[in-house]
Amino acid sequence: MKNSGITKAVILAAGLGKRMQQGEAVGIDAKTAQLAGKGLKALIPLGDRPFLDYGIDNLIEAGFREICLVVGTHCEEIREYYESKKKNLAEKGVTVAFAYQAEPKGTANAVYSARSFAGNDEFCLVNCDNVYDVEDLRNLRNAESGRCYTVGYDKNSLARNGNIPRERIERFAVMDVDERMNLKKIVEKPSADMLATNPNLLVSMNCFRFTSRIFEACSKIKPHPERKEYELPSAVQYIIDKDLNEFLVIPSKKSVLDLTGKSDIAPVRKLLAGRKIEW
Question: Residue 248: enclosing H or E segment and its boundaries?
Answer without folding.
Answer: strand 247-252
